[in-house]
Design brief:
With 520 residues, the chain is α+β, with helices and mostly antiparallel strands. Among the domains are: 100 residues, Rossmann fold (3-Layer(aba) Sandwich); 70 residues, Dna Ligase, domain 1 (2-Layer Sandwich); 104 residues, 2-Layer Sandwich (D-amino Acid Aminotransferase, Chain A, domain 1); 54 residues, no CATH class. The strands form 7 sheets. Strands 13-12-9-10-11-14-21-19 form an 8-stranded antiparallel beta sheet, with helices on both faces. Helix 7 crosses helix 8. It is globular.
């Protein structure tokens, strides 16, 4: 078994890995930038080392600095978390060259699935259905036009080395193609250092469903069922759940088997995810993520499997702890991503100091957070602050628990996505499982910062009543008792104790205009 690990990441995923490793008796080493000195992942690790300024390129993305810490701390393994270097094949190669264990798939697998065009080729060869489109990068704007016309509009131009919606443009007509190609190419070059772009048919209202995979070095591969991730903004997920409210048992089996074929096609080891688009009874391969996913907790809650523990065991050369038929599927789980964004202002990033943090509790509630009171939230990193997860025996109760948990969650000092997520939990289409990747555009009222007219009117009436009570209590006549002046609030209290105001002061019997007309 691995005895020590460097967690090459930050925030909530670094803390999640550190907690899992410590439960297994593995010594944990954290890294942090100057902006993250007081981050919870730093405080929970056995050791922690500063690796540079806030800018990620000079800290969390510096392979040289990370390996220097690994050498200094004498660790046996490196866990990349997700984001940053997690899906960089050259990082996995550098870790292996340093004589360390990379807690993830092989560098060759990462390279193969990191190139979206090569991934499409491999999936087609393995019999996994793919979205109609091209399997090679586009050469130019004119090539993009010809290809888009052959595929059929609408199409989406996508970065071959990309993900997370970067280097991605949806095109509905031939006159838009050339400009969209140049924009996607420049964005892909800036984000990934590779400007290669390809074309796929754009499915306008699909559901986004992904399968959690696990493989070991002994040729065993299993899936741990699906997650529904259809509620998104700008191709970034907001709400995830397991299992999907859509899939039947047969659909779950077919999609799971296709994902296992995909994993076997690239000799997959460790945790990974195959993402599919589902439309009109058909599903199509979208991409493969060669890492642990942000939304992995919902899978853990419905299967009872600790995916981080499995990662360490597989990296140490062990076989998978369970066979496919042994993996249970129990109840329903939801995850809401709490991000530092203004959902009613176009999801603009929000900054500030966390001056209040109250985390919900009770049955079926889990909080995977990477923030603490007093932390400064800036613009250096991904806006994910934490994840709120609920589990229940069925979906309706899981939704109600999530609603309660979101109401209890308090993050002060910085705007978050929580108000939008509360609205989603109340929305009828969501409650009935009628989902698609177009969910938010089709429900613009959810991201409207203005209060709906009936609710606004009710709030104005309530405010007027409260102000009336405040003024009345300040100016109401005093009733003498034992030589002391009583306020209107005290008068009501004494009246409740003695039976009525007249009993408290007989001389005022029948003359108090407020006693029987209190506003509540």
């Amino acid at each position: 078994m691995i005895d020590s690990v460097l967690v090459a990441n930050r925030g909530e995923i670094a803390l999640r890995v550190i907690r899992g490793a410590r439960e297994m008796g593995i010594r944990t080493v954290a890294v942090f930038s100057e902006a993250d000195r007081t981050s919870p992942h730093v405080l929970h690790a056995d050791e922690a080392y500063c690796i540079g300024p806030a800018r990620a390129a000079e800290s969390y993305l510096s392979v040289e600095k990370l390996l220097a810490v690994a050498d200094r701390a004498r660790v046996q393994a490196v866990h990349p978390g997700y984001g940053f270097l997690a899906e960089r094949g050259d990082f996995a190669e550098a870790v292996a060259a340093a004589g360390l264990v990379f807690v993830g798939p092989s560098a060759s697998t990462i390279h193969a699935m990191g190139d979206k065009t090569e991934a499409r080729q491999r999936m087609a060869a393995a019999g996994v259905p793919i979205v109609p489109g091209t399997d090679t990068p586009l050469a130019s704007g004119s090539d993009a036009i010809r290809t888009a016309e052959s595929v059929g509009f609408p199409v989406v131009l996508k970065a071959a080395a990309g993900g997370g919606g970067k280097g991605m443009r949806v095109v509905y007509g031939v006159d838009e193609v050339a400009g969209a190609f140049e924009t996607a190419r420049r964005e892909a070059e800036s984000a990934f250092g590779d400007g290669s772009v390809y074309v796929e048919r754009f499915l306008e209202r699909p559901r986004h469903i992904e399968i959690q995979l696990f493989g070991d070095a002994h040729g065993n591969v299993v899936h741990l069922f699906e997650r529904e991730c259809s509620i998104q903004r700008r191709h970034q997920k907001l709400v995830e759940e397991a299992p999907s409210p859509l899939l039947t048992a047969d659909g779950r089996r077919d999609m799971g088997e296709a994902a296992v074929r995909a994993a076997r096609a690239v000799d997959y080891t460790g945790a990974g995810t195959v993402e599919f688009l589902y439309a009109d009874g058909e599903f199509f391969f979208l991409e493969m993520n060669t890492r642990l996913q942000v939304e992995h907790p919902v899978t853990e809650l419905v299967t009872g499997v600790d995916l981080v523990e499995w990662q360490f065991r597989v990296a140490a050369g062990e076989t998978l702890p369970m066979r496919q038929e042994e993996i249970p599927l129990r109840g329903h789980a939801l995850e809401c991503r709490i991000t530092s964004e203004s959902p009613f202002d176009g999801f603009l990033p929000a900054t500030g100091v966390v001056d209040e943090l109250e985390v919900p509790g009770g049955p079926g509630i889990r909080w995977d957070g990477g923030i603490a009171r007093g932390m400064e939230i800036g613009l250096h990193y991904d806006p994910l602050l934490g994840k709120l997860i609920t589990w229940a025996p069925d979906r309706p109760l899981a939704v109600r628990r999530m609603k309660r948990a979101l109401e209890e969650l308090k993050v002060g000092g910085v705007a978050t996505s929580a108000p939008l997520l509360r609205r989603i939990m109340d929305e009828p289409d969501f409650q009935d499982g009628r989902l698609s990747t177009a969910y938010l555009p089709e429900h613009p009222e959810l991201t409207d910062g203005r209060i709906a007219a009936p609710k606004r009117d009710a709030l104005l009436v309530a405010a007027a009543l409260l102000e009336h009570r405040r003024r009345r209590d300040r100016t109401a006549p005093r009733i003498r008792r034992d030589g002391r002046a009583l306020s209107a609030w005290q008068r009501r209290t004494w009246a409740g104790r003695d039976g009525n105001a007249a009993a408290a002061n007989p001389s005022h019997a029948g003359t108090d205009p407020h006693r029987s007309n209190d506003l509540t």
